[in-house]
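Protocol step 6 of 9: fold each sequence in the batch and record its C-alpha cells directly after the sequence line. For illustration, a two-sequence batch is reproduced in full.

Sequence one:
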Amino acid sequence: MRSTILIHYGNLHWSTIDFLRDNPAAGYDELRTLLGFFMLCQGAFGTFLFVDPSDWKVAGQAIGIGNASTAVFQLQRTMGATMSGGGFLEPITAPNVVSAIYLNGITQDPTSYSIDSATGLVTFETAPRSGLSITADFTYYCRCRFTEDKYDFENFMFRLWHLKKLTFISVRS
C-alpha cells in the first residue's frame, strides 16, 4: 500500500492507493473490511484513530512548568521546535501509551498522576512546585475522518477491486 501525506493548515491529510481483494473464503477480505469500516464511520461524519507510521511518538516532550497551583497539563507535541519562537505546540487529544512523566527529569510514580485518554490531560494529585519542568514520553494517535461521503470502487478482475483514491484528514476535537 502506498501512502501520501499532505499538510493543510491545521490538519494532516493522508491519501492511500491500493487494490483490494474480495475473497473471504481464502482469507482475503480487504474490500469488505474497508467498506464496513467506512460505513461504521458514517462516511465523512464519524472520526477514527490512526497511527501515522512516520509520526506517532515523542520523548522528553515539554508539557508545562509547575507553579504550585496548576495540577492539570495538556499532552502536546512541538512542531518546528527550531523555528523562532519555538514552533507550534499541538495538543495531543488521543494519547496511546504514556510511558513516563518527569518533573525536572525525574520519573514520577504513575500513581501520582492520571491521564485522560479522551482528552490527553495529565492531572497530578499535587500541583508541581514552581519552576519544575514537566515532560513526558508517549505515543499518540491522530484523530481523523474521511474527506468524502462516497468513494468509487472498480471491479477490474475477478475478486479484485481498485480504489483510485481514499483520503482522510486529521481533525481536532
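Sequence two, same batch, same settings:
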Amino acid sequence: MSDAEGGCAEPRRRDARRTRDRLVVVAGRHFAQHGYDGASVRAIAADAGVAPNLITRYFGGKAGLFEAATALDIDVPSILTGPDSELGGRIAGNVVRRWENVDAADPLLMMLRSAGTSPAAAQALGDFFTEQAARPLIGHLARTPDCSPEAAADRVAAIQALILGVVVSRYVMPRGRLAEARAEAVVAWLADAVQRILDGPAPPPLTAPAG
C-alpha cells in the first residue's frame, strides 16, 4: 500500500518536524547553560525524550544542532535604508537595542560565550557575521564608484571589530565606562565612531599574507 493510500506520509512528516523543533528548543537551553563543549548530545536527547541518533539524523551531529539552535536573522538590509550620513546612527541604535534585553538563551550570546573554547562555535559565529552582517554592508558601501569592494570590506572589518568590542565590554564581561554608561549614551558614542569609519579616509588595506 502506498503512503498516499495509507495516509501515513503527512503524519510522519509532522512528527519529524515536531521532534526536530523540540530538539532545537531543548538544545538552546543546554548550550546556554553549559556552552558548546559542556552540552552533551545524550543529555539533550534525554531531555527532549528522543534517541541520541536522531540528532545525527536531523542535524548531522552536535555542530549542526548548535547551528540550528543559534539561527537568527538580524535583518541588516533594513538598516541600510536611509541617508548614508545617518547610517552610523542606525547601526548603533540597532546594536544597542538588540543587546540591552538579551537573556542567556540569546543565540548570539551563546555563540560568543562558546567561541573561545569551541572551534565549531567560533566557526558558526564567524559565518554568522560574514553572511548576516558583513556581506550586506560591504555590498551597500561598494555600490558607489569611489569605493572598491576591497576598501568597503576593510571599512566593514573596522566597524565589526568596534561593535564586537562594545558587545563584549558591555554585555559579555561588563566592566568599565561602556558597561556603566546609559544606553542612549552608548548609542551616541557608537554612532559617532561608526560614522567616522564610514566617512573618514580609507583604512590601510588588510592584505592577506603571501603564499
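Proceed to step 7 once all outputs are recorded. Observation for sequence two: The chain has a mean pLDDT of 87.
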